[in-house]
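job 3f2a | input accepted
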Amino acid sequence: MTAFLSVEGAAKRFAPVLTFGDKVATWLGAQKPPRTVHAVDGVDLFVERGAVLGLVGESGSGKSTLGRMVAGIHVPTEGSIRLEGMPVMSPGNRPRKITTRVQMVFQDPFASLDPRMRIADTLAEGPIAHGLTTRREAMAYARKWLETVGLDPDYATRFPHQFSGGQRQRVAIARALAMQPDLLVCDEPVASLDVSIQAQIINLLMRLRRELNLTLLFISHDLSVVRHLCDRVAIMYLGRIVEEGPTPEVYETPRHPYTRALLESVPRLEIDDDVDVVFRPIEGELPSPQNPPAGCHFNARCPLVFDRCRIERPLLNEVGNGRLAACHLASPDQAGPNLAIKPISG
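job 3f2a | predicted structure (346 res):
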């Protein structure tokens, strides 16, 4: 499959560094339980150029870790991440990011901006280092990108604390765009903003996508925002992709029980007084990524679980119409209602 962004078999495990005492205890025969965190577990993702892929799931599902791997911040433990066939990270024992074509917008803009640097210096630091502008032209370069994201160019001389939350997020987006990327990884970019400001940032991203031909990986908890913005959506649970497909189809006829449960857990406003407002929170807790369940990771919380689910990992297979699902009950000849899954409205 030819795609602009290709993530194949990507995994990320965080293992603690053993202290001297741990090493001595292990050498003496102490049985210490494994403490490795399986943050991302064998993920395959393919994104076409100019598309917007939404990545959703509960907290702790590995969304941000996967986004940081795509952006070249975290080194994959296994697998590969390529942009138009070229690796994002260099090979070898000490890999590093080797492209500026992928940039990231973080959830908390205040934490990601240096409070001691003026905005012009923040925006121009990376482009100067990579030869995209010169020190002489840095101020004009920063002003241009501030104007692109809808801010007054004169704000270039300000510090981060002099902006509101929405303005700081625009600055963070401008900093990413100043590196002239082709792919933007947005990690919960509107989660900490007011609803009205969220709409402004979403509209900004949609406009930038059209004008700059950007490809977006949009990570979010807000299912309504993902439905509005994204062409396709991938559902992630405990480090694995469990379903992927065109956004309208996934929302209307989910093919994986976790997708269904995630959508049903969202409260919906009903104007009709005769209609009961019902939402069903997902039962149980997300298992620990230090000790994920065997087989399907969702088996402990799934209402359709059977013996095979507890033993064999379901593969992410084609289930028709460009959709993928990792469920033993999902197959091309079985639609949503065959899985006791009914279409979801609105």
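job 3f2a | Confidence is low (pLDDT under 50) at residues 336-346.
job 3f2a | closed
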